[in-house]
Amino acid sequence: MPHxxxxxxxxxxxxxxxxxxxxxxxxxxGLAEPILVPAVVEPLxxxxxxxxxxxxxxxxxxxxQATEVHAGDFFLTSTSEPYEMRWQVQGDARFEVMHxxxxxxxxxxxxxxxYGDNCNPVSFLDVSGARDERVTFLLEQLRLELFSERQxxxxxxxxxxxxxxxxxVRTYPDPHNAARGANALQAxxxxxxxxxxxxxxxxEFCLPHLGQIAGLSDYHFxxxxxxxxxxxxxxxxxxxxxxxxxxxxxxxEMSVIEISMEVGYSSPSHFSQVFRxxxxxxxxxxxxx
Length: 289
What we know:
By secondary structure, the protein is of the alpha+beta class. The chain is built from ten helices and ten strands. A six-stranded antiparallel β-sheet has the order 1-2-9-4-7-10.
């Protein structure tokens, strides 16, 4: 069951509010469940910080394609369709990765700086498990600035993001693919919406509220959300509820009735029906697995 950038987030201090950059760090052990990489406006950079793993990618319901990666390898993705990734960690060491989205205005600014005001919109090549010393250096500097104990500087973070955008535009352009524009959802908006969903799993699903958070009409938000994730907002909300229920079934002694209430179902029988439809077994059967 894929989710938007799941896994175990590393313990982090508050980061500065820099709208041009979205950064997250994750730690994995063993086999990670597939994660959904959404089709948002911004390109996604993934840097392997530590450990080694077999990373597999596929289009939704497609065939898995595997790449062996180690610390220092990176991925660059700029796709118009959502896809899935998963990791099989090698050895006992934790597999730690950094996810970074750069905003479209920052990419456009970098392109104008390099090629003038009348340059064409930029799109990027897809890169899997490659090495680039400059990408590694800039991402490491961003990580150190954002997640150290000292107070991060938004100005320094923005400067590093600008340098990274210029390097990507200069080094990894794809002249054969059209850049995405207004018909895709911005990563920071998608993240904000999903965080709101996760915080309100026990409440009724409310599409107008989510559209308001994204600054879009209900119709426009629903269309862009499904384009980004492959699921409607309501379907995605159900998946998040079931993911939380699975965690509670395995990690706590809560009863099925208590868990059904925790994830927004007043009727345990309805919860069991939805759980079986989404997961393939009943809640009690899942707990015994």
